[in-house]
Write a structure and sequence with these properties.
The chain is mainly beta. It is built from one helix and ten strands, in the order βββββββαβββ. It is globular, with a radius of gyration of 16 Å.
């Protein structure tokens, strides 16, 4: 007689501390951009109010680039994700906010996968390199801009 035992182990580096179980897509919510990959390929901290809100039923994303309001669509299947063409207002930005906007919009164009790590939403390229890290937030500062 054989006994089948199932062993469930957490995935290293993933956590449900944010209220989102590991590996489960956050069906809705507000995410503030915490780090983004810049032109040199280095992940850097972001102090601006960039981020987005997920509207899962509509498969839409609305938010702020740090300079301008933005909106667009996304398609997701499992851990694969692609953001559609993003529309943004066209206020002129220079200096750090303009750099964050350019980096964030470029990153959204090349993101191919997502994962939740220690309560953060990580957006990665096809090879798994982290391009952006976003933190879950209850309020949306970009809605008041």
């Amino acid at each position: 007689m054989f006994t089948l035992a199932l062993l469930c182990l957490p995935v290293v580096g993933e956590s449900a501390s944010s209220g989102t179980p590991p590996g489960k897509w956050p069906e809705s919510g507000n995410w503030r951009l915490h780090q983004v990959t810049g032109q040199g390929g280095v992940l850097r901290d972001v102090a601006d109010r960039a981020g987005f809100s997920l509207l899962a039923k509509e498969r839409r994303v609305v938010g702020h680039t740090g300079c301008n309001a933005m909106s667009g669509s996304y398609e997701r299947q499992g851990h694969a994700i692609r953001f559609g063409r993003m529309a943004a207002t066209r206020m002129f930005c220079m200096g750090p906010p303009g750099d964050v906007e350019a980096d964030f919009m470029r990153v959204l164009d090349v993101v191919r996968r997502w994962k939740i790590v220690d309560g953060e939403l990580h957006l990665t390229d096809a090879r798994g390199r982290v391009l952006a890290r976003l933190q879950s937030v209850s309020s949306v500062p970009w809605a008041n801009h």
